[in-house]
Amino acid sequence: MSEAATLLEVRDLRVEFRSGLETVHAVNGATFDVRAGETAAILGESGCGKSVTAAAIMRLLPQPPARITAGEIRFDGESVLTMSRPRWRQIAGRRIGMVFQDALSSLNPVFSVGWQIAEAFRVHGEASRAERRRRAIELLDRVGISGAATRVDHFPHQFSGGMRQRVMIAMAVALGPSLLIADEPTTALDVTIQAQIMDLLASLRAEYGMAMVLISHDLGVVSEVADRVAVMYAGRVVESGPTREVLRRPSHPYTLALLRSVPGGKSKAQKLHPIVGSPPDLARMPVGCAFHPRCEMAREICTRVAPPCTVVEGASGATRTVECHFAAEVASGRVA
Amino acid sequence: MMRYLGQRALHSAIALGALVMLVFFLVRLTGDPASLYLPIDASVEQRQAFSERHGFDRPVLAQFASFVGDVLRGDFGHSIRKDRPALEVVLEAFPTTLSLAVGTMVIAVVLGVVVGSLAAIRPGGMFDRMSTLTSLGAASAPDFWVAITGILLFAVALGWLPTSGTGGWQYWILPLAVLSLRPFGLLVQVVRGSMLSALGSAYVKTARAKGVGEATVVFVHALRNSGLAVVTVAGDQMVGIVNGAVIVETVFGWPGVGKLMIDAVIQRDFTLVQATILVTATAIFVLNVVIDLLYVLLDPRIRHR
Amino acid sequence: MSDPAATPVAAAAEAVQVRRRLPLWRLLVRDRFALVAAFWLALLVVCMAFGPELLGKAATALDLRARNTPPGSLEKGWLAVLGTDALGRSMLARLVVATRNTMAVALTAITLALLVGGLLGMIAGYVGGWSSHLIMRGADVLQSFPSLLLAVVVLYVLEPRVSNLVVVLAVTRLPVYVRVARAEVLEIRERLFVQAARALGGGRRHILRRHIAPVVAPTLLTILTVDFAVVMLAESSLSFLGIGIQPPEITWGLMVAQGRNHLAVAWWLSFLPGLAIMLAAMSANVLSSWLRTVGDPSQRWRLEAPRGER
Amino acid sequence: MAASPEQSPGDVVLRVEGLRKHFTTPGGFRRQPVVVRAVDDVSFDLARGETLGVVGESGCGKSTVARTLMRLDEPTAGRALLDGADVFAMGPRELRRARRRMQIVFQDPYASLNPRMTVEEIIAEPWDIHPEVLERRERPERVRALLESVGLRRDHAERYPHQFSGGQLQRIGVARAMALEPEVLICDEPVSALDVSVQAQVVNLLEEIQARLGIAYIFIAHDLAVVRHLSHRIAVMYLGRIVEIGPEAEISEAPRHPYTKALLSAEPRLDLDAESDAAPRQRILLGGEVPSPADPPSGCRFRTRCWKATELCAREAPPLTADPESRSRPPRLVACHFPESDAGS
Amino acid sequence: MLHHASVGQRSRLRARIAWPCALSALAIGLGLTASASAAERTVTVVLSEEPDVLEPCQSSRSNIGRVVKQNIVETLVEIDPKDGQITPRLATAWQQVDANTWRFTLREGVKFHDGAAFDAAAAVKSIDRTLHATPIECEIRTKFFGGLKITAKAVDATTLELVTDKPAPILPTMMGTMTITSPSSPMDKATNQPIGTGPYKLDEWKVGQEITLSRFDGYWGPKPQAERARYVWRTESTVRAAMIAAGEADIAANIAVQDATDPKMDFSYPNSETSRLRIDTTRPPLDDRRVRMALNYAIDRGALRGSIFSADVEPSTQLVVPSINGHNPELKVWPYDPDKAMKLLAEARAAGVPVDNEIMMIGRINIYPNATEAMEAMHAMLQAVGLNVKLKMLEVAEWVNILQKPYADDRGPVLLQAQHDNNNGDAVFTVYNKYHCEGANSTICDKKLDQTIEAAEKATGDERRKLWQEAFRIIGDDIIADVPLFHMVGYTRVGSRVNFQPSISTNSELHIEDITFK
Q1: Domain that residue B46 falls in
Q2: Cα-based torsion angle of the residue sequence A62, A65, A70, A74 in order, rounded to the nearest 10 degrees
Q3: What ipTM, to 2 d.p.?
Q4: Model's pTM, two decimal places?
Q5: pLDDT of residue B124 exceeding 80
């Protein structure tokens, strides 16, 4: 795999939500990179901090209650968190586009979709009114909405779920960003539509040469589209590396357990292997490794010491990072 | 949409009919107009003659029948007190109340929206706390008390404004201020609440992610979506303003419908009571239609329902 | 039953997640406005309970030589600390004694409105059909007409006694509860837990009682607190127009109305009861918005958050 | 797990015949009332102890089937014979009794439990409605036994729903449904709202219960993987109709209906065993979206998105007919003029 | 009080008012507003209510009379507010021809505003309109001429003859209420365009806002100073007073006692009203004279006066003011003697009178300023001597039902707050109605009194006065039919621009011609 320039760098990101007497540690030192042109997936179950991370990258966290307590986010070498508001507005929408999960609530119900797409051009000072409209129609056409010239004046509620997601995508790629953050873009959609949307995203990515951060809980989707994956658990990236490597030979017990709990294996008679218990209460994180209470291979050290980030050499030579005391054992399959 | 409006019209007509019927019989239970109209020493014969002249001696149902017939012909009867056609009297007073109400609404909505929006930007901030306190106070102050205190303070003690009456713009300040207090207070609360939820919504996130500036986010994206709540509350308050108008018109000597109606009830001027109620209720019906249309204007989702 | 302990499912039970919530009173303490409001309302309740018994005599004792004593001095005894009225009666005593009537009128009226309106609204929402139409049209009639005028007409028919006043005020507030209750029921009855109860074979009464009423009630209670202020103001407006509660009964509204005649010489006569109304109404409003915040999971954190970070 | 139970007509616990559910939207001022055919002529049998999976995209009518079977919505036409007695024709009293035999678990565990009731109250509610089932004094103990049987602790009875996680709540939902010991349990997307790791817990619980009590499930989901894992037979629905129904193995291995085939192929799959990057499996990308059930296409409803559609499909709706190659009894049924065959594709 | 605070007053005021900022801005505010309206010779009068109509026939109603009477329309004669004597206006002389006939000599050279000449024929037409034009509601007809048939005749151009169906000894006094309008006034309906002979003619009535009059150049009398008069109305006394203080109006016809805080602006005048508590003597325990005495002894009139009532009110002994023909000066004001009251009650109780029956005190809201406080105070005073009294304040319509016959049979003992206005010179307008057995508002039935009243009605001159005085003695001393309270005063606030002396008639008529500029 050729080493492209790093476009987005997230280093030791920590985000807290303060509520009552407790502080919810939503993100606890997440670290990952996204290189130009690649598709990176953040994989995790609900509450693992993946969407909060995305919101932090886009400076969309409501503060308060949220607070970024540590870490750094760099986009193209510039620090996102400390950059001035005007500077950030030049980047948001223009160089980074974002697609949200729920297109219905993410589109403003009282403005036509054309207006909303055109707004992207307007805020970035591009084109005349007529030109903006023309380009909005063009974009709608590009994302596969038939009759774009009339649909441009329609309102979000007049579109179906899949169409709305197409509108969202059109809006996100309007200014040809170099990075697209897609936060569970297909979760609310039916499988056949999901396939359409993923297909659309792939072709747009190729066309614009965009990098994409795909945030998803769906192992299937991630395994099919992502070049690299970062698996998050309890606010940390527990394992990251090339998708194929990570999913085929997981080095972290959580990744392994996740894979084993998904139905769809060949042997139907086999019982599923759920991960026991529930994800940890983010306000009361366990000491040591956050996964140890649910980990089948947890040992004494796991209850005391948080595992360091270790670099593991993969089969194809690509490296990946893992946070587990026994990463090597897990990867080799020595621990059942 | 048309069907909806048609339905609303039908409902309003039924409501109007029921209301008029209710009022017609209720006011006739409130006592004999003769005892109030005629001098205290008037004899029984004089009273009887008075009742006969005005038809109050007839059975109530017969009175109602001829009232309905008259109204359908456009005749709202003759006000005994004013010795003029009741409708004429009401229509004369109507513009005053209407202009008061509209003025009040404009002030309350503009101020309410601005203050409420600003408060929602930094919930819990200094401005938010101050505006919350102010709006609560505004919504909680007895209006007649504010009116009189206002006159004593601003007109008498400070001499900045005329005490009362109608005339140039100075005459509008105190009545409008008094009348808009409550709707203003409520609107601030409502706008703040709906702005808060709008600002927390996903579409605002989308706008921010597009790089839309904060001012546009607040005053275009969020505010437009709070419009429905504003219209609903403002519409409700419009009816309430007639309540306030009674007080304000009484204190400031404004010749409006509110005072007219109260006086008519106190004087048992039945025809005038009926006419004012019919006119007011019709106006409220029209107002409701306007609100419905505003809904449609503000929310495309309703347009396509 | 088979032995479940061996399954991973049983082990999962160990990790039961208990979401901690602060008890209500601690949330109250954390919101200074709400705390003051609650304290003030509690004080009023005390006045309401014991006021007339403690100060009833002082509230009616004339002293024509000490009339219109301004507040702020203890020279004429502690009862005159808030001044005296046009008959030389202690303002403090009168304010305290008037609490009972004022609060009783407002509370009874809104409780009545809540019970009747809530019930009608629930029927309209759950039963539907012509009864719903009838109820909603009735609410339309009431709502499309200025409540004050309706109250005036009705009070002229019924004569301004306390009981009639309560009924009138209750009737004018009725539509709010009917509408809200109906809207809530329409929404709640589509919720899954109601569907689940229906699937279990639960009848209308079971569902209304077990599932709908308990959910509708808090919403109505929130409105109730706002309405408390509205009704108190309405009562004082009626007194202003001379058709509210009549002397020798006293309410704050009546005191304001009577005091307005003396506004130019003795501002405190109407200022103090006016202030009492305003404070009580404000307290109710503050408490109501606090209740709304507490009840709204997306806003509750504002109260739970540590000071200075809201 | 356990193989499909032997099927004979006598073993049918629930027989659904010609179920239709049409919603009528209110007409407009200048607008005709619109009839939405959410479910249009659905028939199937459910054997004792069997799991029938129902899959389809949103709007295909699968949840409406569940709701009408429970009479949460009144069916427009059809019969649902529960041991021969037509549930749809029952009066309130009979229906109440029938509901002891047929229960439902909903998709959203947070919404399907009343937040103001304790777990004990929630699980005991069925007995409040059917007091004849269990003596009042026995209830606390039964509640706790049920909690244990779904993998929760006895002391959870005193807690409120907000104190539980989604998977635990869904188990409470199952416990409530089990309180009346039904013969048929309709599971309306019971795991869709749950995370994969937790989803597996609930799936295992459902399997365990079925193995223990022999309850028949109608398991509705849009997630093919879960349905395939759990079901003995699968019904695929499209726009209010069953397009294919038959044994799980037959359908997932060799779908006959083009829609079934597309659905299976669109499902993102973890193909961990494929060693090389080469040959990603062939995916059928359906064009367009599901048409509105208010105005379904003529003839075959799937024809607008079908790559095989001909003029015949527009003219004539294909009936559900037995697949001649089916090895099972009753045989797999397919509603297509041009079904796939083992030889084809 | 806020208005003209002298420097000396300020420190005192500051103690009472928590608006120091208001005070400091006071002088500036007044200076600005007062100069604004000084230019034109227009008098602005602020009334408490807007007239419903301007029909001269209704001008006996004070809200109409204040605008219309003697300003727009005049009467043949006037009653002197000082002594009740009759003085000429449109008639210069009058004489009784026989018991049933009076002749009035009319003033010459008088013109109506529309140019028509005022003569006997015009007077006849106007009187006919008032007395016989039934489509017109006419209070003068019902109030003053009810039960009397009058035929008016023009003997010649300046001689008007009035023939009555029964002797009318005080017909000239009654004619003091009869307004004369132009012959062009419609006979079949009421008019809001009164056309009279007065010094002012109606300019415009902007309903709800104001009424303006302008000086009538063809007026027969002396030319008044004010060129125009403007009437506005405000319900709140405080506001009316404030308007004068702020220079927005010149005369506030009546303001409440507590608003009359500035002796330089506020003038009290006896308003011919007399307040009382009417005792229903037919119901126990009020049917006992000792109880009725006790009621009178229990009321501390001295404390009420100058506190709730103005300091200018006069304690009364009877229902008419001293200027009325028939007022009895011999009667004494009841002293305040609670001990005596209690003793009397004890005696009555000992004699078996059910003294402890609940007595209803019924008041009327706003019957006079502080009416409610007054009732509350008296309620407390009566309770203090041990009477079981209950207070109830009623709105006017309900109160009227209690005031007027027919009375409810099941009524209990009632003390009714009432007030009576007689500014028409003779006791006849009072006594029959209030005290005769057949009187519409009477709660007593005494043979001897009825005979005296009937005799007085027919008598004239001294004899008439003596008989009325005897009647008042019977009412006040023998029967004790009332708790007499006060001869009331009104307050008129007059702005600094004009001179105006209010009188007893100011309540019902406000003569613009009497106003002069400083």
Answers
A1: 2-72
A2: 0
A3: 0.75
A4: 0.78
A5: no
